[in-house]
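Sample intake sheet
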Amino acid sequence: MNKREFTAVYQKRGRWIVAWVEEIPGVNSQGRTLKEARGNLKEALALVLEASRALASGKAVNARREPVSIAIAA
């Protein structure tokens, strides 16, 4: 098993602590305590990496692949 290190960011917002991983968009979570936010974020990261791996390997069930284009303002 390979270990990778990512950057977790935690921010207090009201009574919640929101958390996200800088390097991977879409990996975010929250918790009432820093400990809870850390645990939730680790779980979210593991799930996103697992899903990405399945999609990349072609093993994703009921997955459809197609090109997508967007316009980006200069």
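Comment: Strands lie at 8-13, 16-21, 28-31. The chain has a mean pLDDT of 89.
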